[in-house]
User: Fold these one by one.
Assistant:
Number 1:
Amino acid sequence: MTQQSRLPISIEFFPPKTPEGVAKLRAVRQQLYALNPEYCSVTFGAGGSTQEGTFAAVRDILAEGVAAASHISCIGASKATVRAQLATLKAMGVKRLVTLRGDLPSGYGAGSEFQYASDLVSFIRDESGRDFHIEVAAYPEVHPQAKSSVADLWAFATKVKAGADGAITQYFFNADAYFRFVEDADALGVTVPIVPGIMPITSSTQLMRFSDACGAEIPRWIRLRLQGFGDDTASIKAFGLDVVTSLCEQLRAGGVPSLHFYSMNQSTATLEICQRLGL
């Protein structure tokens, strides 16, 4: 495969909570840099609870010579805190943001100056012009809190019209759901790149837990196969590699702009999938 036809990838991490986690993530990143990612992103905890850890990880990635994107969320944020975050990120050399509404921390009441991600996108554009490339979230299988698929699609279009440059999807295992979503968005005049989010399958219980929480659909045949493996982690990982590699091949054949890997701060599965794809 020529460098020209190589599908770009990006990789997501979450901020570690311990010194051991920081050291482990540093080693994982070094392994994943072999894939030459376009950028690496770092998530932001509920209500901005991991801001220091997020910014520290972003700083480390930049120091390692790789472009870094910081997540930024509006739950619990004020215009003043976001303004300060933007100034910090700009001074660090960050050029890309992943702008989200964010999850409500447990026991958290209302009280944010931003109700929706579109409000935050609009504010960032007003404050910083074109200083940042802004990505937003997309939900091919509908946001779990959306009133309907139509309402969800309009909410997505509103975020893009507020000033987003592109989108990254929630993970999914049905390529048709992604392609249908892109078609529907296109029909609403949304033409920014919509990058599929890819979740490697390495643990059955972890995948079920995440998917139940975020509304990602696990097709029944995948669920039953995973249940059939019981505690056989080697079989779960081998099956997961086959399923996710096949999904990526379908997406690439359909002309996706790039792939965004949810690494879960691990390197093995993402490396193996990309190796199988010739990336």
Number 2:
Amino acid sequence: MRVRGAVLREMGIEPPYAQSRPLEIVELELDPPGAGELLVRVRAAGLCHSDLSVIDGSRPRVMPMVLGHEAAGEVVEMGPDVETFAEGDHVVTTFVPACGHCEPCRDGRAPLCVPGAAANTAGTLLGGERRWREPGSEGDLHHHLGISAFAEYAVVSARSAVRVDPDLPFEIAALFGCAVLTGVGAASHAANVRMGDRVAIFGLGGVGLAALLGAVAAGATTIVASDRVQSKLDLALELGATHTVMAGPAAVEEVRAATGGGADAVIETVGNAGVLAEAYAATRRGGITVTIGLPHPSQQLSIPAVSLVAEERTLRGSYLGSGVPALDVPRYIDAYKAGKLPVDRLLTHRIALDEINEGFDRLASGEAVRQAVVFDA
């Protein structure tokens, strides 16, 4: 079938993207779903810093690629051997297809799926195939994290999709596939935030603010939010932060002062080794520092090694919320419906596919929290 989609051909093109146009909206050919795959009509797709990191080259991926990984849509066709979905199902996509059979999957650590990671690195679907082709070109285009959400339709592995309630607006549902899974999961699974904890969040994009929502829902009594954009600090207060700190040289001491000597849990979402070092320095003795951000592979982290033992400190990473998407997405949606996770407050812009380059300018400048490409009904 013929589909309009956003293709990234080269990483590292300089902003402003409204002028340089790194994402080209073109007509593509999409092959039918194969065994274990779904054809999904994409109804909304979120713009995430992980997408921006591919555009600016800090998260290297194979090129050319149909970008996008956070989406919601409708199943319109199933390939052979798909038994758990039906035509018309509403689904949210998740960016690590969990095979269900490798050792991490068997251990309940779906985000670490070995075949899923290999497929994402290669730019293929879980089965190793590519379904994108450009008319008149001999080579196939790559999939982004098994999804390629910036297109009218996408073929995805059934293991990259979670069925959701049909009454949930698509542009809200899409956020649960990355921002909410990653942020809320980091707070609840990785940091294990508990009632009465003192928590700090470094970086208030969609994922960081979702982590804040997770900390609020868990009952943290002190929540310090740090960012370089005042409007995001203001929003953090509205969402439950008790203190805000402008990012900069004084941020660590201000966080430590607000938390009585250091936070029990600090969650870093920026994807910068320097900010991660600050987050670690703002964590109390015996506390945990969780990093969600994805810095360039060349960045190195320097921390006092002795503190890990002498202060019984924990430093850990969290990918896709450190949970099981098939279980967590419905649980987080239930919390949203109950008013405990006001995820809709994270959505600041609804845009058309043709406005996507301008959207990434807003994301890069910090003007937007979460934007969604909304496709016509």
Number 3:
Amino acid sequence: MTRHTVKELATALSAKVEGDLSVVVTGVAEPADATRDDLAVAMAPEFVDDISKGAAMAAIVQVGTDWQAAGLKAVILVDRPRLAMAGLTRLLSPSNDVKPGIDGSANIDPSARIGNNSFIGPYAVIGGGAQIGENAQIGSHVSIAAGAVIGNNAVLQPGVRIGQNVRIGDGFCAHSGVVIGSDGFSFVTAEPSAVEKVRETLDDSTVEAEGSQDWLKIHSLGGVKIGDDVEIGANSSVDAGTIRATSLGNGTKIDALVQVGHNVRIGTNCLLCAHVAVGGSAELGNNVVLGGQVGVADNITLGDQVVAGGATKILSNVPKGRAILGYPAMKMSSHIQSYKALRRLPRLLRDFEKLQKSVSKKRDID
């Protein structure tokens, strides 16, 4: 990390600063672990008491904190801690220190176009006709297929794969191992398969199918279209569409180990947490939030502002603004009531058995 005064950091965060404005920090740390050169991050009340356990001279704290009692020389005061964390971590991210240049081992087709002030890392491969905007940071061993288009200020960490017919807007960030534009998982049989019959009838008597049922691949020609300010976590994948493009709207953020199937349409400012899987041709509205391990069946629609709790399995359409939970998904409040009732079942059964025995004894007496 480079050296910053608390005044410089506060100015960048549009935050209030008090104390010795010239105090210099070179790192950030939790309060108890902070050295004299660290900015102690103590924006939650439970961390403030830990400041005295470390050696920090400066801290970032919530407005109203009694910082003088903590022995500090300077503080940055913020109203909304998590929002301040977003700004602080962005300012101090090591990615900001990358210098422009192209490594000699990179393999770049002469017809590819790379914008000004870009960094291309070791052993990166960029295909013919590919277009990369200004200020790009392309890590080592990244491959960008022929004809792919990526906007300005892209960050592609080591090992990212960008396929053909992929169009990406400005401010894109892909973490290591991300694959964009791989073929969708789409196959068909010459005769109606057992899967097709079951899907139509929901009847296990139709499982048996005729013939060898060889699977024939349906290739993906539609590519992927990604808007501006989209981030995708490590080892996640977005499959190419069959005919139309799989699409991700502006501002959408995807966690690690997420699978987005072919032909999926995801709206703006959505959050998909780790291990989410979205089946082919599903459509998600704007501001949809899917917790970890949520599964979305293919060919269904989720309205705007749907929130799905962790491990929810969504098998049918969900209306706008609905909070859901469970397997199968239901209203979150209904699921919680059902879960509470389920936990009471053992006690209810015991009470029922006692009542049953009491009734039996009464019958014997009569």
